[in-house]
Amino acid sequence: MISYLTGPMLGNVKMGVVAERLGTKTAIVSGGILSIIAVLLLAVLLPKFVRYVGRDSVKRKEFEEREWDERNRARTAVQT
User: Fold this and answer.
1) Contact between residue 17 and residue 24 where contact means Cβ atoms under 8 Å apart
2) Cα separation, 10 vs 30, whole angstroms
3) In 3D, which of 2, 16, 14, 55 has the Cα closest to residue 38?
4) CA distance 44 to 38
5) How much is the pTM?
6) C-alpha 44: how far from its chain's center?
7) pLDDT tens digits, the chain, 80 residues: what are they?
């Protein structure tokens, strides 16, 4: 919760300070460059995240939901 509450505020401070000292255009360009650097750095530090494909998780979730539905149908059939 702290990360998504403070992140925008820290970004605003950074942009305000840079814009005040170096100009609005420099603040915008430097923000974009820092974003690209951050993404590249995280890609290097977290290679499993880069290779992650969520299809397996979706298939597992669908399987679990089907299983849950079948159990509930079986319970309902026994109760009636």
Assistant:
1) no
2) 15
3) 14
4) 10
5) 0.56
6) 17
7) 777 788 889 889 999 999 999 999 999 999 999 999 999 999 999 998 888 877 778 888 888 899 998 888 877 777 76
